[in-house]
Amino acid sequence: MNDGENYWNAFRSHKRSSSDGPTLSPWMITALQATKLVLFALCNLVLTLGSVFSKLIVLVLATNILPHTHLLDKFSRKCSRAIVRRTSTTTAGIYLSLLLIQCLPDAVNLVRGGLEMWKGRCGRLIGSLVFLEALRAIGLSVLTFHVFPQLDLARCLVLGACFPLVAVLQRSLIAMMSAARNGRSFGNRLGRCFIAIPHVIMFLVLLSSCYVWTLLDGKFTATIALPIGIICTSLGFWESWIDTTHANTKYDELYRIKYAVRKMNNTTHVVVSFMRIICTIGVMISAVLMNGHTKLNAFHFVKAFFSFNLRQNYTLLLLLATGIIGLHILMRGISRFLAALDLHPFSFVHPLSIAPLIAYGFVRYVCQSPTCSISRRLAKFGLRWICDQWFQDVKGMTSPDFYICLVWLVVGCYRGWRLVRQRYFDSTEEIISSMPPVCNGLCIEQSLVIFQHSLNRQEKTMLIEDEDAVNENDELRIRNDEVDRVSTVYACATMWHETETEMRQVLRSILKLDVDHATRMNNKKVNELRYRLEGHIFFDDAWEDIQEEGIEKREPNEYFHMFFKLLNEMTGEKLNDEGKLETRILVNTPYGGRLVVKLPSGTLLFVHLKDKKLIRHKKRWSQVMYMYYLLGHRIMDCPLSIEDRQQMADNTFILAIDGDSKFEPDALLRLLHLMNAKSDIGCACGRIHPIGSGIMVWYQKFEYAIAHWFQKAAEHVFGCVLCAPGCFSLFRASALMDDNIMHKYTKTATEPRHYVQYDQGEDRWLSTLLLKQGYRIEYAAASDAETYAPEGFEEFFNQRRRWTPSSIANTVDLLMDYKRASENNDAISYAYIAYQFLVIFFSMLGPAIIFTMLVFAQVAAFGLNGTDVMIYNALPIGFFVLLCFTTESNVQLAYAKFMSIAYAFVMLAVLVATSSQIVLETVVAPTSLFIVTMVAIFFFAACLHPKEFTNIIYGIVFFLMIPATYVFLTLYSLINLNVINWGTREAVAKATGQKTKKAPMERWIDAVLDVLKRGLRIISGRERKENVEKREKFEKKVLRMEMALRNVESGVDIKRILDEDEEKERREEETQTSDMPVQQEEEMQKEVQKANRYVWMTNQQLKVCERGKLKSAEKTFWNDLIETYLKPIKSTPAETKQVADGLAALRNQIAFTILLINTLLALAIFLIQKHKNVLSIKYLPFKGFKWTKMNEMTGQFEQTTEPLKIDPLGMGIVAFLLAILFVQTLGMLVHRLNTMIGAFQEVKNLYEYGVSTVPNTKNDDERIMTNARLMINATGVTTGHAADGYTRHRADESDTGNVLYKLQKARLAKRMQRSALSN
């Protein structure tokens, strides 16, 4: 590095200014196949019939703009009894209805795009798109407001079939130009001329629609409006004549938007929406002035829009228009849904090709039958069914335009079929599905087309001859994007003191990944999903000092030896002839040691043994280690160009797992597909299943289930997941390398709140950094992983004591910095911020809400006095608060455990009281309705998760433990906020140099023990023992000298080691209470370790391994990294005491505030209930409502019609909680829909037809892997298949905002600044 810089340390922070088989069981595959078939049929039916209905309603409205009072056709004569009352306000209502159908979606897009532009998210205006969409709006409006009022329904339908006029003209010109091209033979030209003739004829036929009625009937006066409307609509329907041949031409932008290669930016969206609205309103105003409405004025429009009266037909017309708009939204959603399932409607039944034909047939049938029920229903809206406006006096004769109209209809349906016909792609091709970016309400079938495009296929363009087409199946064809399809996955696990079962679990998962990775890398199929795999396990506190023959050595501890033995057992590695394991290499490192293992299928597994005397321990610093090692040293220090390193970063992923995680390879595949789908995803996490045994694990099974079903799903759908669990999450390397993420993650705590936010929940803090920098965190419910959960009460409470404050601190940090988060992250809106605020606010009120529930439930169940019950419940809870402030954690936990058992019985009373309230006040009472709704939603959620349905059973345990978790656990976590270690408060006292305060009983026991010890010391003879100890120390010193002499080749000063050993022994006799070693002792330990650096490799278990040596560059990197970020933190007792005091002050401030708020809330609810007769709200669910009430005089239950008395404060809380639950339920439904789409894709890839009961074969596995890439992004259903929402990281290769470019730019700027200062 000539400039003296470390490339690995280029990251910055800114201050603020394939598996063994399918995971789906056979019955689930059968059910999914059947569901998929039913959904396909229903969706196609809704699309076709919905388009026909929408088209007919629009045409009925348009044909009724002008009054038709003298219709003489058969339908009008027979159905004349249906009286139609028309006023000027009704006519205004018709105009407004058509305007809303066309312009309301544009108005929504205008507002949404304007808000995005206000945030600074603009783009270059695409003028051609604005022009063409304005033409389409003008054409449709001219036809609707000027032409259709003079026609009947049948002629309007056949005229709408002429919209592909420009597409037919384009095809004719291409055919003729191809025939006229130089170099062709006469026969070739003649053949191409014959091919062009049908297209020319179709164009002339469609062109006749612009003038035929002007020639045939003198009553038709829209002679100028008709050709204008047809031509403008045909030009504006640019999706019909823009195709893949326009790539790299002057229409390239339109091509990219149509096929979703480029997203439609906010600036273009706003201008397009604005122009469409202006054009439509302008044409409508001209129609009002030109259609002869003498009595119609602006007052009628205002009245029709603002005067809501269901008895008036103009109000019914606006409601009908609103329903049509809702139908359009539904149909576009169904089209996206079918595209996500890769179930496109059959071409011949697509609305664009079949809807005009069905509508025309229906109109003819109604007019010929005639069916008067339609006339009666339309009369309520002030509308008529217009069958035939012309040639009514010619009886028994076919109208002159009948046959030409049929030809128009046939040609239009044929061209519609040509546009929507299914294209066939190879199963390995990467396909983009897209929809038109705008919704055309007046012709909705144009907005329901799904366009598909392959990123792998070289499409023919205007410049490519047919004869020069490239053979896509040529095995020798060079594919430039083959390299970036091979992702690199680093599986990084953090371990501490896991059990053998937990280690076996994570090793089994890594070995399965090893097999899957090797299978995919050896598969040479084109476009096959492959990934490079490398495993890393970081052992925290893996070394210990042991005494062996009087010599103190630093060796790996028993947990590593257990891991090593287990690894050899699971891999089945055998010794070679020399008695060595060739696949095991031991290496000395600056942070301790390393074991490098080659797994059976070729994957390298690096086991990093961290020595806490040399490097910082705990999980966060292990994460910093592998981030800087894998992303800094491996990527930034590699001798590649910025572009190559950026590509490497984009395709490198870190799979973060715990030392007890269990998962299958297909879980990783799902996360990989999710990350590859959109470049703004910084992290993807899976569904975590707690495992273990015992009541606490049962509780956590239900807790984890509802947290993932509701909370995580809602976060995924409406914003971003706030926490990516460290036990199973996949991180994008380029996201971690961005500013304010990886570098800021190395920050040490300097303020009291930092200790809570940074070190108590490192996973949550890393997630917060990603969200603030603008990256999404998404949740894939189908990616399952298991991890061991706390099985004991104390272990569970201590885990949540760390998690709860960290979770709250990071959420509050995100809420306080909402402007920056919303500005950087498109997925974080103000509405999502408000939702998170409500969630965190009500979680803080949990103790008060549960406390009042317990009080009133006991009052209802036992008939006790409310004041007495409140006091009886307040005393034990208040005593627990006192214990939390004054005693050690073991005392607090013992008391909380006892009270949790006691309150579990109280919850039975709550169950009885709740059931009684439901029976007496009926289900429609607010509280009863909330409880019944909540239970029903939970059961419904369990039904939507059939593989996890049994978790609903554990809801019984969850219910009984509500007081334990929502009251005692919340208070325990809150008041112990200042405890920042994994243990208890005793560790803090020891670190600060203070003596631990003990209870009186403990002090009395200690005094008795001191007396006994003193007596034993006198009896045993102290002097004789001291002489023995001196002799042992002398022998120990001699043995150490012999050990040092054996290592004399290392160049270590032996005398210095021996002197320092004596100094160490002297210090051990004068041990202080401080945990932190002083500087001299640490230096001495380092020298001893240098003298014995190879001793640990001679261990009985490890001596079978080969020995290796770090490269000098990597050794330099580790030394620099440790010196810069990972050097063990040294602090004096005074500094530690200052931190403890700051944490205590923070705890007091927060705890007293939340305790005060909860106390006031509980007291307010109690007092309102006590004065319920005065302060309550009278609520009557419906007229004639009856409920059961106890007669205080007779003591009997009697029915009464009195209104229910509702506590306003409690009702407000219930309403907000119910609103949050409904939002989360909606998010769950959307997320389950997306997960179901992914399951459908898996079933499609598994079997083409039906379900096979034969076990998986090798060919089946290959088919699964070949098509696994087609699994869609679970969130992208609503945006991933639309032109305005598809994001691809390769869409714009010239983007200079990439991470590596930013880092390089900053590094060069820093170098120039340094050079300028030196000059």
From TrEMBL:
Domain of life: Eukaryota
EC number: 2.4.1.16
InterPro entries in UniProt: Chitin_synth (IPR004835), Chs-1/2_IV_N (IPR055120), Nucleotide-diphossugar_trans (IPR029044)
UniProt KW Coiled coil keyword: yes
Compartment annotation: Cell membrane
Topology of this chain in the membrane: Multi-pass membrane protein
Reactions accelerated catalytically: [(1->4)-N-acetyl-beta-D-glucosaminyl](n) + UDP-N-acetyl-alpha-D-glucosamine = [(1->4)-N-acetyl-beta-D-glucosaminyl](n+1) + UDP + H(+)
Protein name per its UniProtKB record: chitin synthase
Transmembrane segments: 37-63, 83-104, 125-145, 151-169, 190-214, 220-238, 270-292, 312-331, 832-857, 869-888, 894-912, 919-940, 952-975, 1150-1168, 1209-1230
Biased composition (Basic and acidic residues): 1059-1070
Native species: Caenorhabditis japonica
Residues in coiled coil: none
